[in-house]
Design brief:
Layout (H helix, E strand, L loop, with lengths): L8 E5 L4 H12 L3 E6 L2 H12 L8 E5 L5 H15 L4 E4 L14 H29 L2 E6 L12 H22 L3 E8 L5 H14 L3 H10 L9 H12 L10 E4 L8
Parallel strand pairs: 1-2, 1-4, 2-3, 4-5, 5-6, 6-7
Helix pairs in contact: 1-2, 1-8, 3-4, 4-5, 6-7
The structure holds NADP nicotinamide-adenine-dinucleotide phosphate.
The site of NADP nicotinamide-adenine-dinucleotide phosphate has 30 residues, from helix 1, strand 2, helix 4 and helix 6.
């Protein structure tokens, strides 16, 4: 399928690991130049080198070390991308790291950290790129959200409340952005095989006083298709959503969760 992404430029937040890295690789392989943003510079550089090793069409990779809880770092990501690539066509909002844990054990900071990074971080990035997308009369945004937005869990409320608010934001802003041919969609992964899934299993095991293996076995049992989602599956859907093939799709959320949370 020709996705027509050659020559486009993209920002992928949290692009040094997991879903973000898989998405950055996929975009690069389609001929897009990709800016990846995350905090740890060594991991970021390593990820950039992994991407550069892929077959390419002369397109570029730009690692940008940034803490996306900070408004000034968000401006830095956008200005560095523009300085290097000259334009921004695609934004993949993906950086998130909400903790799991029992509600009564969670501090205000745990909630604030999740809201600052993912809710405010995604919103600030959309706000920062939209003027550029508007001037081009074209833009494609994908927010990686998560099933807990629609189907909350008691031991994942910082993440669940973040995700619910982001669904509201994605749908809420889509009509306004559509006037300038800017599409914004959400992908909500179920349990996906990344470092974060490992961290969450450990946090859940600790809060419930059971072993990590028990948590993993329970999680797997709850997935009708019986397997974790692979980050590349999320990347493939993101590619489709930011391509011309999805030219009439905006304001929607697509679940990729092995059938775990069917709804009408
Ligand atoms: N994995 C799952 O099961 C799952 C399920 C549903 C939704 N999701 C969502 O999918 C997204 C990606 O998850 P993942 O599993 O791929 O995570 P991951 O493997 O932990 O990767 C997270 C990425 O975000 C970056 N990051 C974290 N905090 C940051 C900050 N303050 N500023 C800038 N970058 C930051 C990390 O790099 P640094 O640490 O170096 O900054 C890393 O590149 C998240 O929004 C998550 O909520 C994941």
């Amino acid at each position: 399928m020709d996705l027509n992404l050659f020559g486009k430029t993209a920002i992928v937040t949290g692009g040094s690991a997991g879903i973000g890295l898989a998405t950055a690789k996929a975009l690069y392989s389609e001929g897009a130049s990709v800016a990846i943003a995350a905090r740890n510079p060594e991991r970021l550089e390593k990820a950039a080198n992994t991407i550069r090793e892929l077959p390419n069409l002369g397109n570029k990779v730009l690692p940008i070390s940034a803490d996306l809880t900070q408004a000034e770092d968000i401006e830095k990501v956008v200005s560095k991308t523009l300085a290097e690539f000259g334009r921004i066509d695609i934004l993949i909002n993906n950086a998130g790291s909400a903790r799991a844990g029992s509600f009564l054990d969670l501090s205000d900071e745990t909630f604030l950290d999740a809201w600052n990074l993912k809710l405010l971080g995604y919103i600030r990035l959309v706000k920062a790129v939209v003027p550029h997308l508007k001037s081009q009369g074209d833009g494609r945004i994908v927010n990686i959200i998560g099933g807990a937005g629609r189907t909350p869990r008691p031991n994942f409320l910082p993440g669940g409340t973040t995700n619910a608010a982001l669904l509201n934001f994605t749908r809420g802003i889509s009509k306004e952005l559509a006037q300038d041919n800017i599409r914004i969609n959400a992908i909500s992964p179920g349990l996906t095989a990344t470092e974060r899934a490992e961290d969450l299993a450990q946090q859940t095991a600790q809060s419930r006083g059971i072993s990590v293996d028990e948590v993993k076995a329970e999680s797997l049992k709850a997935i009708p298709l019986g397997k974790l989602v692979q980050p590349e599956e999320i990347a493939d859907l993101a590619l489709f959503l930011v391509s011309d093939r999805a030219a009439s799709i905006t304001g929607t959320e697509i679940l990729v969760d092995g059938g775990q949370t069917p709804g009408v």
